[in-house]
Design goal:
Elements (H helix, E strand, L loop, with lengths): L18 H10 L9 E6 L13 E9 L4 E8 L10 E5 L8 H7 L3 E3 L11 E3 L9 E5 L9 E2 L7 E2 H18 L8 E6 L2 H18 L7 E7 L5 H4 L3 H7 L5 H11 L9 H14 L22 H9 L19 H10 L2 H7 L18 E2 L6 H9 L3 E7 L7 H9 L5 E10 L2 E9 L3 E6 L6 H4 L1 H12 L5
Parallel strand pairs: 4-7, 4-10, 9-12, 10-11, 11-13, 13-16
Antiparallel strand pairs: 1-2, 2-3, 3-7, 3-8, 5-6, 14-15, 15-16
């Protein structure tokens, strides 16, 4: 791989956070706490969960930057099968800036919410029978810093990008494994969906470089698994037009006009006719839920920042008031669980149970959009090529009803690697039915579709994704 792709940036681009946000963060974060601090706690009970937890849960912080006092918060759930030998997975959630708790409670983790109308009582949790912790130990990480419960003593520490946040994840893993040496010999994988899929190959590259230099614990990195991963606009955005046509969202005539006037470039229109037809395409796509074209279009429960008065109320009382902006999804909406998580996380009993450091994070928001993040890595494809040709395993899967990152785009960038086919396109099955389709390439690269899956496939098709992951992690064919 060209050296320039692997360089560590010597300086990070800085943005200016809004003044009020800076003041709020400075008031919330105690300045005396050392950045290098690492703290962990075994959690045996969670509010809303009936009885003691039937699985091992640890939460904690790991310092990743001395200068700004940045600390990443994590949830570690031990494998329920054979923790001494089962794989360990670091699970990242996309966004960027969505909390790792999404993976813990909505995707592959050990709990899920009871979907019931909110009546003022704390939302209830139950065990997830299809948790990937049945076959692996999983670290769910709030990354980048200032996502979820991760924080920085100096607000400037929140301003990171692809390169700097990936280095922080590498630093986190080095420290975490230093404190958990019993897992060093276990197979280790990086996993995640959406934007996490873009940075995971970069993190894996940093890890492999550190191992080669022997300047970090010898983590047994075996590969990575990513779903509907963002790679670069040339592929991700370009195939939305074809995807929309295939799903019947745009007509033959609109599709033909787009092909004629845009000549394959749907990212940066070069003429007025192309720009106009793409505006029409975008307008039609806006009529549906692009994360899963068959689902209701619902409000996503990502409230706007609360004001300082409510923030102070939260610090003094049991919970904050439910924030109505941008609206409450109805209970039959796919996004209703996110609303329940917002209420549950912003309750003092929850913070106490998870051992959240007081004064570090006011309002918990599942995906923080107001904090800057620099998308400074133009493409992850060179990292995919480098890692797989060096022997690391890769599973790339696509929920086939996603229009944000269509399976067409994922197939296209994988084909651009020009790897030879080892096992040609075929169905893979669950309970005698096709659960999706798969193809295996040289260099241990497997691509699979998940039939009926959306942008975060394990959320929509948990049974199929559980079977897929278990077979792949156990080194069996799908």
């Amino acid at each position: 791989m060209p050296a320039k792709l692997l360089r560590t940036p010597t300086a990070r681009r800085r943005h200016h956070l809004p003044v009020l946000h800076l003041v709020a963060v400075l008031l919330l974060v105690p300045l005396s706490r050392p950045a290098s601090a690492s703290a962990s706690t075994v959690v045996t009970h969670l509010p809303g969960f009936d009885g003691p937890l039937p699985f091992y849960l640890e939460t904690g912080y790991v310092g990743v930057e001395e200068e700004t006092g940045a600390e990443l918060f994590y949830y570690f759930a031990k494998s329920e099968r054979s923790p001494g030998t089962d794989p360990v997975i670091l699970w990242l959630t996309g966004g960027p800036r969505c909390s790792g708790f999404s993976g813990f409670a909505f995707e592959v983790g050990p709990v899920k919410y009871v979907r019931a109308p909110y009546t003022g009582v704390l939302p209830r949790l139950v065990q997830n029978p299809l948790s990937w912790t049945k076959m692996a130990s999983i670290i769910f990480l709030d990354s980048p810093v200032c996502s979820g419960f991760s924080y920085a003593r100096d607000p400037k520490g929140c301003d990171v990008g692809d390169y700097s946040s990936s280095l922080q994840v590498q630093r986190f893993l080095n420290k975490w494994f230093t404190h958990h040496p019993q897992y060093l010999s276990n197979p280790f994988y990086l996993g995640g969906d959406s934007y996490a899929g873009k940075v995971i190959p970069l993190i894996a590259t940093y890890m492999s470089q550190g191992t080669e230099k022997r300047d970090q614990p010898l983590i047994n990195l075996k590969g990575y698994l990513i779903g509907n991963p963002i790679t670069e606009p040339k592929f991700d955005k370009n195939f939305q037009v074809q995807g929309a046509h295939g799903f019947g969202i745009i007509s033959d005539q609109i599709y033909e006009a787009a092909m004629k006037n845009c000549k394959g470039n749907y990212v940066n229109p070069t003429n007025q006719l192309c720009a106009e037809v793409l505006e029409t395409v975008d307008s039609l796509i806006s009529e549906i839920a692009d994360a899963h074209v068959l689902y209701k279009k619902c409000v996503v429960a990502i409230p706007e920042p609360i004001d300082d008065a409510i923030r102070r109320k939260f610090l003094l009382e049991e919970s904050i008031e439910p924030n109505e902006a941008p609206g409450r999804p109805t209970v039959d909406c796919f996004t209703y669980g996110y609303y329940l998580a917002y209420l549950w996380m912003n309750n003092k009993m929850t913070r106490d149970a998870l051992r959240i450091k007081e004064g570090t994070v006011g309002e918990w928001v599942r995906c923080k959009k107001e904090v800057p993040y620099t998308q400074d890595m133009p493409s992850s494809i060179p990292y995919h090529r480098n890692l797989t040709t060096r022997g690391y395993r890769a599973l790339v899967y696509s929920g086939d009803h996603d229009l944000q990152v269509p399976q067409l785009s994922t197939q296209a960038w994988i084909r651009s690697l020009n790897f030879s086919i080892v096992d040609d396109w075929r169905a893979w099955h669950l309970d005698g039915q096709a659960a999706g389709f798969t193809i295996t390439y040289a260099n241990k690269l497997t691509f699979a579709t998940v039939k009926g899956g959306g942008h975060t496939a394990p959320e929509y098709q948990p049974e199929e994704c559980f079977a897929m992951a278990q077979r792949w992690l156990d080194n069996k064919p799908l």
